[in-house]
UniProtKB/TrEMBL annotation:
Active site residues according to the UniProt entry: 93
GO aspect biological process, one term: carbohydrate metabolic process
Species name: Paenibacillus catalpae
GO MF entries: aldehyde-lyase activity; zinc ion binding
Designated name of the protein: Fructose-bisphosphate aldolase, class II
Binding, dihydroxyacetone phosphate: 191, 220-222, 244-247
Cofactor note: Binds 2 Zn(2+) ions per subunit. One is catalytic and the other provides a structural contribution.
Binding residues for Zn(2+) 2: 115, 145
Cofactor(s) in the UniProt record: Zn(2+)
């Protein structure tokens, strides 16, 4: 899907985060993980009159058995079917391979994330700059990561160690790559917090924000106390503008269905219509709750000039 055929309210990450930062709220980047749950995320944004980001990572695509084209087709189908009018970004989360990024862009994704954070600084710069040049030529925003964000469930990333982002390195990284958004490591982790407890290094965030012009992203939003997260995007001079939330959505879906183990996407598609309604309602309630009380973006859709 090219830029000319996209609905006007399906926008780039760069444009979405400009409004979020100006309004001192964050936009939730929600991963439904199953294509039938894309509808629930979009419904939640529409009902809450909130901008939102619908995302999926490369590892989620593989684990749940989905292609970028299948995810993109369902997203655009639901935007049209439900007459979604709030601003929405279709985002490819953590991805290391240019081939997957190219597939996603061809499928209509308006934002992609290159995650070369495991590489030395120069290697991260090289890979990120390559993606920026490719994606920007096609009108697509790019998020990258500097530092290493830990994980508790290994669904989105492979490593559980954490390396905090150095503010001076962030300044140089942004200058060299031209990325639109930067995921920073400052205390949160992917997955559910069991033993390790979330914390946010606000002083580090403030210094990074003072040195870089790009929008900041916090991954690992599931399980972080709301007041802790809200302080991060209300920092003087602008703080975090995008917060990733994935695990909480899947947990609400599985609980509503009385399941403990995750499904494949094909299993989810095979659920009865009645079970799908129950699952979608649970996911929608979770997303609305996050919009209203966590990222504080409810009612902010009218702020956007599309």
């Amino acid at each position: 899907m090219n830029n000319q055929t996209k609905p006007r309210n399906v926008i780039t990450l760069k444009k979405a985060l400009e409004f979020a930062e100006a309004g001192r709220f964050a936009i939730g980047s929600f991963s439904p993980r199953y294509t039938p749950m894309i509808a629930a995320v979009l419904q939640a944004g529409q009902e809450a009159n909130s901008p939102l980001i619908v995302q999926i990572s490369h590892k989620e695509l593989v684990r749940y058995g989905i292609t970028p084209a299948e995810f993109g087709d369902e997203f655009y189908s639901q935007v049209a079917k439900q007459n979604i009018t709030v601003p929405v970004v279709l985002h490819l989360d953590h991805t290391k391979e240019l081939a997957t990024i190219a597939e996603a862009i061809d499928a209509g994704f308006t934002s992609v994330m290159i995650d070369a954070s495991e590489k030395p600084f120069d290697g991260n710069v090289k890979d990120s700059k390559e993606v920026v040049e490719y994606a920007h030529a096609k009108g697509v925003s790019v998020e990258a990561e500097l530092g290493m964000i830990g994980t508790t469930d290994f669904v989105e990333t492979d490593k559980d160690e954490e390396l905090y982002t150095d503010p001076r390195e962030a300044e140089e990284f942004v200058r060299l790559t031209g990325v639109d958004a930067l995921a920073v490591s400052c205390g949160t982790a992917h997955g559910v917090y069991n033993v390790k407890q979330p914390k946010i290094d606000y002083a580090r965030l403030t210094e990074i924000r003072a040195l870089t012009p790009v929008h900041l992203v916090l991954h690992g939003g599931s399980g972080v106390p709301a007041e802790m997260m809200q302080q991060a995007f209300r920092l003087p001079g602008g703080g975090v503008s995008k917060v990733n939330i994935a695990t909480d959505l899947e947990l609400s879906l599985l609980a509503a269905l009385g399941r403990e183990e995750r499904m494949s996407n094909l299993e989810c598609l095979s659920l009865s219509p009645e079970r799908l309604v129950i699952g979608r309602e649970a996911v929608k309630r979770t997303v609305i709750g996050k919009i209203e009380s966590f990222v504080c973006s409810a009612g902010e859709a009218g702020r956007f000039v599309l």
